[in-house]
Amino acid sequence: MLKIKNLHASVDGKEILRGINLEVKAGEVHAIMGPNGSGKSTLASVIAGKEEFEVTEGSIELYGEDLEDISPEERAHKGVFLSFQYPVEIPGVSVTNFMKTAINESRKAKGLEDMPAKEMLKLIREKSELLEIDRKFLSRSLNEGFSGGEKKRNEIFQMAMLEPKVAILDETDSGLDIDALRIVANGVNKLKSKDNAVILITHYQRLLEYIVPDFVHVLHNGKIVKSGGKELALELEDKGYDWLKQEATV
Ligand SMILES: Nc1ncnc2c1ncn2[C@@H]1O[C@H](COP(=O)(O)OP(=O)(O)OP(=O)(O)O)[C@@H](O)[C@H]1O
Ligand SMILES: [Mg+2]
């Protein structure tokens, strides 16, 4: 579903991604690992279409369609979801109301009417039960005073409601405690299906014990220097990244 070919991207004239090739098929979970500053978050931003990055070479295709001229909003409507896409605090707008708006925006883009209130309530109920989200949480003001774990819960809830085709989760926050890791892991495992795919950016081998990836890729200096199965994550845990850096420069 997602095909990235020889992707090069820069910010302020500085090249950060230097020829990424990656194919993600429906039903797969890909983990992206790699040292700080290797370009993981940049890759996520470029897939989502964030405008501060310039694609200088290569392409990203979703279901065979080149995303080059497609805005971040349209990409989202086509099923690309990036965690932390909406980190804004919106005082006075509840988690539920924000979600209603997001869903109806997405329907409007597809030429559909607003979702009937009854159907919306049912969907919210179903998804919040699936993810064990407390009623009280749904009426809280978006991101206002959210703890790290609550932010995660909100993100996973957004993902559950929007049912993306490709979900990119950037778990760079070193402050995630075991509960937050579990929220992410449970959410991903429950929402994963044969029709969607997950790209999970993480430093945590521990997270990959809960969400078992089909592929693990190591990014270094803007390139994927190694790909493998889930055992690669264990090897990295054991050996660190230095051996790969050496391989990459040879
Ligand atoms: N908006 C920006 N302006 C300037 N430089 C940037 C910008 N975004 C990223 N970079 C640079 O690009 C490089 C890659 O950053 P990126 O955030 O993609 O790394 P990362 O692999 O996600 O690292 P971490 O593991 O620390 O999250 C870094 O050198 C960073 O400073
Ligand atoms: Mg990052």
UniProtKB/TrEMBL annotation:
GO terms for molecular function: ATP binding; ATP hydrolysis activity. It holds the Pfam family ABC_tran. PANTHER family: ABC TRANSPORTER I FAMILY MEMBER 6, CHLOROPLASTIC. The keyword Nucleotide-binding applies. It comes from the Bacteria. The lineage of its organism: Bacteria, Pseudomonadati, Bacteroidota, Flavobacteriia, Flavobacteriales. NCBIfam families: sufC. This is Fe-S cluster assembly ATP-binding protein. Belongs to the ABC transporter superfamily. Ycf16 family. The keyword ATP-binding applies. Residues 2-246 form the ABC transporter domain. InterPro entries: AAA+_ATPase, ABC_transporter-like_ATP-bd, FeS-cluster_ATPase_SufC, P-loop_NTPase. CDD domains: ABC_FeS_Assembly. Keywords: ATP-binding, Nucleotide-binding.
